Hints:
single chain, mainly beta, Methylamine Dehydrogenase, Chain H, nine-stranded antiparallel beta sheet, signal
Amino acid sequence: MTIKTILFKTQIIVGLSAAAINFAQNTNINNDKDFKLNSNYFPIDNNFAKAGVETKDGYLIAGQNFVEEDNTQHNSAIIKIDKTGKLMKKTTLGENKDYKKESFMKTVYSINNNRFIQLGSKKIDDRAYLWLREINDNLDVLQDKLIESVSASVTQDPMVFNIKDGFYVISDSGFYRDLELNVTFISNDLQKIDNHVISYIEPPFDFYNKYDFSASLVNNKLYIITNGVDERDKENIYATKYKTYILEYDLSTHKITKHKKISESDFLSRKVIVHKDLIYVAGIKYTDELTAKKINIRNATVKVFNMNFEKVKEFNYIPSPDKGKFTEMLYDAAIVNDELHMVGEMHQTGTSSVYLKFDLNGKLLEDRLLKYGSTYAENRLLKIVPLKNNDLMLLGKGEGWRVIVK
Length: 406
């Protein structure tokens, strides 16, 4: 897929253009009456929620929030809310006043023993390193450390996988030209750090560029997807035609044991999930069909592979005619209770959030388009957080931070 990447502060928006069909919705006509929680926080601006965890009496939510306080320009925040959505506490974080010293902290994760951490990056002398904070469920800081042995970029949020003795962090390297992923083990007491890298410019890969990654951990092996540029365009050497690659990485040997290209440039992968010996790769597929504004329509698509990376099936989301034609962007997916849930955005007039649910055979069970704010207001769902009792938290943007529990 040929895409144009625009860096808008710290949010990457990939090749999306508004189509012409008027699909102006508002809260009164949204299909959201059955949601257990549906709240918004912070001013509209360029703010969005993108990470969350469940606590014994509520939720911790983290994300992007641009605000100036005490002569400091913050870009991140974390809040504590109760089960009804009432805001209990707020902490602003991150700094982007000085590019050479900027820092970001837009995440929160659950680790072993009912503990919580945040992961971000902080620059020293113009080099970005992995920044870690341990917090309790009242947002009090228990540990705050900069891991200078791990150069990390948080243009894309790190992924965390808990194991018995600690957890693994998968993150983009801060050395962009090296096209590397960090695979970092951190012990439960946060004192032992062991970092390894996967390079996409060394065999078996030879990328000119890469975009995005996702990982899934099964039986001490990581299954990682990324979108790589593996050849130069003869007519335009700056063209970025991304193809999806998958690899298997053995955590005991720190070696790539299998790899394969699984798509051409008509597909952009966003999430990989390994479930019951099948690999689900969710993304968007470019079509030849055009909107009224002559924009190519992109559809949310799922490619399913066996553990040998052989394709088993493929299914996608094509909206019913009453919803009109629009181009889609997918941001996250999760399998809960043997159902595949996906979130993203659609473009018509402004943007609307999209929530989709499929059975594992590809049958569409539910689709919802949600719009909050004015006709041209930005809406997108960025993250799915599985909760207790098969509930889901959906996080994103819609009149500020949008937090939904369904």
